[in-house]
Write a structure and sequence with these properties.
The complex is a heterodimer of chains A (440) and B (293). Chain A is an alpha/beta fold. Chain A is 45% helix and 14% strand. Helix content of chain B is 73%, strand content 0%. Classes of the chains: A alpha/beta (440), B mainly alpha (293).
Chain lengths: 440, 293
Amino acid sequence: MHRRTFLTTVSAAAMVAAAPKLALAQELAYGLTPGRPFEGTTINVLSVVTPQFDGLRLRDQEFTDLTGINVEWTFIPFGSLQERVNAEGIAANGAFDVVNYLDSWGPPNAHWLTRIDDLMARDGISMDRYPPAFARSAQFEGETLGFPLRAHAQLMFYRKDLIETPPATWDDVVRIGGELAESHPDIAPLALYYNNDGNRQNLFIWINFLWAAGGAIFNDDFTAAWTSDEAIAATEAYIGLHTEAGVTNPNSLAFVEQDARQSFMQGNSAMIPVWWWAYSGFINPESSTLTADQVGFVGMPSYEGTTATYAISMPFSISTYSANQEAAWEFLKWLSNPDMDRANAIERDVGGESIVNNVVTHVSSLTDPDVNAANAGIQAAAYDSLANSDIMPQIPEWPEVGDILSAAIAEAAAGGNVRELMMAAAEQSDRVLRRAGRIE
Amino acid sequence: MRDQTLKYLLVLPAVLVVFATAVWPLIESLRFSFYQGRTDRGDFPQNWLGFENYTWAFLYEPPFWNSVYVTALYTVVTVVLTTLFALGLAMLLAPGGKLRSGVQTLLILPFAMSPALIGVSFRFMFNPEFGLFDAFFGVVFPPLADVSWLANPDLAFAVIVMADVWGWIPFLTLVLIGGLASVPQDTIEAAQVDGASGWRVFKDVTLPQLLPVLAVVIILKAIFSLKTFDQVFMLTNGGPGTATQTLSHYIYITSTRYGQVGYAASVAWLMVIPMMVLTYFYAKFVFKKDDAP
């Protein structure tokens, strides 16, 4: 052995021996590759703006300390994220190693997102750590595109000071709405959002009705399935909350989800079915007139005896154009570890910054007593909501078909004929999918 | 170096910038329009289609024709309303007076605002729960008290028209004030001496001499109305349904949201046709040679 080789070997052994045992244990816990093989690498991350991911960013020094990999975050508001993600796919230059996107944008961009199934198998990670709907939202054609680090379940929020027993069915919603109209005529019973000025938000509640009625969006051959009798009846029931039962806020036609949340927070509406992440805003004195004592939440109401909810996620994936895919995988392993998922929903101060976040995605966090204790039990309610939950169709053409449906729902709520509009939407959808080659 | 060579060298950077930022993208977009060109597939742009994108738009896409209709109606309504209001204001302000400079300064403010900001502002002002305009119109016209403007197809269209007219009146007013200043005062005075009424003076003396400026104003406004995107995007995003989806918005959604760059490029090139016609007339009026004395 040469003298230099001997000295180098001894030095390396000494360094390993001197390394803190805790750090080594953490590396093993997160499944990180030992030996810091990617030291000095910088990975660029494109992410949506959210307090949840601020919490992750504020903790990333731990990752750098463990691996020697530096992380540069670029945060984009949700409204501009889709264009940015699509632009990354077209530019194909690997400007971002890791990208964050809404699950329904995954299929159109799947041709440049790295499949991680082999990497997960190699490093002993299973998608079973997520609820099935969350796991499916990060997969495409049976392969895994990334980890659903931000994901949402639907809940029904209601005013505890106005409503004694929360609704368990949509019939209950109508009944409670009638009672409220008499006892509190100045407050609209239900804030819904029928407007199609958004990311197909008016489909989110509609799809509860559709699935509960046994309906579907597509048939096996991708022709429209929302024209079946039970699907039309479910759609009429959803629209009927506004046009017939009259329990919705009169402005629900103009509302997008954000407007409906505002209406609830300002005390103008008594109930709102919406994503669970909205809770922190509902009880935040800076954004809401309501207090935690006034805001309650339960699972989504059932329709025709069945509760079927819609789940959504924002996965993180590795770009195939990235020159640092292995380093990016190390980052994803660390970023998605269950300990941090849990801590990010409990700790309210990270690196001297205030972080209020109740979003977790691991089953272990959703069912964790400490996480639930720190967040009024909303994770447990979300977990129940996810018991019979599904996602939107995972095909590249969904954004266009979804917009067609969304426009039809908006027009129906404004007084249009539900059956005619849904039939017309089906024709248009078939044409889109035929042009894309999905329908023969 | 000869002057002849130098002048070309001096112009070259500007030519290169124009080529890189305008000519080359135009050529590329024309090329894409003959391909399938979907961003949700690999190997962009894929599958040569010839004129299939163009024929598809014409024959099989109701949303395309809807956006053509919306754009045409929007252009006609905004051009007529903006021109009439601007002409009226110009006639009021042209004589001058103490307040004119102050009013002119105030007038320029709406035009100085970005269309996107106008869109956001109007969206807030027509918010059904706390919107200023929504409440105001509800008081002035009681039948509109419980109407959600942005949820009604006709009223949503009216809102985007209002926002556009409000934003454009000031600029056109200032242009027309300039045009009125160039109308010879002696012809107007001669008509007045002959006993012509104010309306006759305007119709038979002022308007004919203002026509070249008016034509430029109308064509310019029509070009901008045809291209309208920002306000629609921020105010209604083409909704409710597709009631306010202009061609520009349709092209944007089709290309960036649905990834159909080839098809969107073909629609964009179809949109170029009326723009070229309008630009031709605009150039004809602006660069018209004066008649020989």
